[in-house]
Amino acid sequence: MIVKENRWNITPLEEAKMIEKTITSIENKVSDAKSIDEKDRIELLKLLGELKTEVTELSKTHAENAESITGFAKVSAHEAIREKKNPQLMNLSLKGLSSSVDEIESSHPQLVAVVNKISQILSNMGI
Fold it and tell me: pTM here?
């Protein structure tokens, strides 16, 4: 069996593990953040679980897209839960997160919906 590797010469399995690790890290930060109210925390954790599933599946066929989505999700969450908010950085990170799913909208509508919900919650937190 031939296993296609990406530009970093890692297998799809390794790619999926890296994505899973990153989203688990985001989940841990959301769980521990004092700046998130309980309702948003519960919803974000639910959505991050869905994101993990969707992006891991996406990484099998669109590794670079999966990496971008995961990276922007991490940065957006970081900006939203900072104690000292920077609205400019928050807006840039959310724009990147939304843009990261633009080209897969028709093929992965569930993933796009999850990303949009996450963006909305994070945006509301950044106000």
Answer: 0.88
